Amino acid sequence: MTTRHHRLDQPLEQRRTLLPRPHYDPESFGRLSERIARFLGTARFLVYMTGFVVWWIGWNTLAPEALRFDPYPFIFLTLMLSLQASYAAPLILLAQNRQDDRDRVQYEQDRARGERALADTDYLTREIAALRLAIGEVATRDFLRSELQQMLKELDGHRTAHPDGDYASRGA
Question: Which parts of the chain span the membrane according to its record (predicted)?
Answer without folding.
Answer: 45-62, 74-94
